[in-house]
Amino acid sequence: MSREKKILLIIIVNIIIIISEIVFGILSNSFALIADALHNTGDVLAVVVTYLALVLGAKTTTFKQTFGYLRAEMMAAFVNTLFLYITMIYMIYEAINRFLNPEIINPIYMIIVGFIAVIANGISAYILNNIGVSSCAHEHDHNHSHSHNHSHNQNEDANIKSAYLHMLSDALISVAVVVAGIFIYFFEVYFIDSILTVIFSIYILFHSYPLLKKSFLSLMDMNIIDISQEKLELIIKENTNVIEYHDLHIHKPSSKHNFISFHLVLKDIEMNLEEIEKITSNIEHKLNHLGFNHVLIQVDTSKKIKRHTNCIL
């Protein structure tokens, strides 16, 4: 079975678990079970993002869609995480209200459905972890491939690893739901449901913030790539014929794409095309090693810059 089909199976199984937790959460009057379902929903959406990255990333570009579906991953991540934030804030509000006005909870549903969720999430995490390990092994066997492919596989594995961590956290939270159900069954401490709901919700808000921030900044075309300006300048200005650079643009449209473009100003000396290409190729090669898999360099002379400045004035 292919990676895509395995991930799709994980999505289907977990959607069934989510529906079950919501239905039985309502029947048992347990907000903790519903909160676990909503957390699982957010993490399933994260797995959906992983699936989209694998499927849409394989699609070829067209004349109309020259970038393909690069933005689909970050767009889905932002919308899903924003929805999760709104939902969790509402759950906190309801949990506090429930804490002040306790209600009787049927713990049997919490224990049974929570236990099933532990098994389903545990198996999902195991499958995703195996997919990531096999991908890393495949990459190691082909370490002689081009740097672009190396970067692609590396980021793809990181995406799968992220989905694995999401499923693992779901399994741990489901364990907490089962433990809470056991406490309610034996000791009738109903307020523990509200406490767990608040804890789960705060954890989810904290856990989801980096993705919300990253996806928003990506959609705004901001530079979220870990590279200092000083290090970049050392690479670009390493050749003595380079005077300066301008119109720098760095952005990350998806988890596995790092884009950079800029104008390179060279000295006004006689250089043939081969010499110029040697300068730009050397810069591009070093940027590839830093993780940039889409590099665009336009070469200018200082005369062009002067003409451009005069036109502005």
UniProtKB/TrEMBL annotation:
Pfam family, one: Cation_efflux
Main location: membrane
Domain Cation efflux protein transmembrane: 7-220
Localization annotation: Membrane
Domain Cation efflux protein cytoplasmic residue range list: 228-300
UniProt membrane topology term: Multi-pass membrane protein
Coiled coil: none
Transmembrane segments: 7-32, 44-63, 75-96, 108-128, 163-185, 191-212
InterPro entries recorded: Cation_efflux, Cation_efflux_CTD, Cation_efflux_CTD_sf, Cation_efflux_TM, Cation_efflux_TMD_sf, CDF/SLC30A
Key words, A-Z: Ion transport, Membrane, Transmembrane, Transmembrane helix, Transport, Zinc, Zinc transport
Family the entry assigns: Belongs to the cation diffusion facilitator (CDF) transporter (TC 2.A.4) family. SLC30A subfamily.
NCBIfam families named in the record: CDF
Annotated PANTHER family: CATION EFFLUX PROTEIN/ ZINC TRANSPORTER, RE54080P-RELATED
Protein name as annotated: Cation diffusion facilitator family transporter
Lineage of origin: Bacteria, Pseudomonadati, Campylobacterota, Epsilonproteobacteria, Campylobacterales
